[in-house]
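It would be a great kindness if you could assist me with a short task in structural biology. The matter concerns a single protein, recorded as an amino acid sequence and a row of C-alpha cells. Kindly check, if you would, that the fold set down in the C-alpha cells agrees with what the sequence suggests. Thank you for your consideration; the sequence and its C-alpha cells are set out here:
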Amino acid sequence: MISAPFGLSSIVLWIYVCAALVFVIGLIKIFGELSKEKGMDKIMPFGRLFFAIPLAVFGSEHFTVAASVASLVPSWIPWHTFWVYLVGVGFICAALSIAVNVKARLAAALVGMTMLVFVFAMDLPAAVASPGNRFFWALALRELAFSGGAFAFALRPLSTRPKSTAALPTAALKAIPRLFIGIPSVVYGVLHLLHRHTCREFRCNYSLPSGFPGECS
C-alpha cells in the first residue's frame, strides 16, 4: 500500500481529507445560519453535519478500496466497478448537499433508498442463504438502520421554527424510519446478551483507557 504523508496510508488519508472538507464547508454554512435560530434551536443545524461527515467517508472508500467494495456486488449485477464509483460519487455529493443544506432532504431520501437497495440486493439474500449466520442478519439490520436514519432526516423539518403544516409527513410515514432504527437496535441488544462472551472477546482486542468501566484484565 502506498504510504501517504504523516505516516498514514492513502486510504486513511482520504478518509481524513473528505471528512475535513465536509466539516469545514458545513461549518461555514452553519455559522451563517445561527443568527436565524433562537435558543436551543441553534444546535439543530449541527445534526446534519454529523450525518454528512460519515457519508463522505463512506463515499471515499468506494474509491480507495474499490476492488473490495466491488466484490460485495452480486454477480447478477453487471459492471461492478462502475456501480462502486457511482455510489461513491453519490455519497460524496449527498454529504455536501446535506452539509450545506441544499436539496438536503432529497439527498437524504436518495441515500435512504440506496441503503434499502443494499439490504434487498446484497444483505438479505446472503442472510437467507445462510440463516444460521447471525452476522449476515446483523449486516442487513445495520444497513436498514442506516436507511432509517437517512429517511428520518429527509422527513424532519430542517428547522424547529413554526412553518405551515401542509407539507408535513403523516404520522404513519414518520413511523417507518423509527421502525428501521428501532428494530435493529432491539435485535443488536438481544444479540449482545445472547453472545456476550463473543462481544467481550471482540472488545478486549482493543485497548481501553485505564480505569475504563468493563476494562478487560
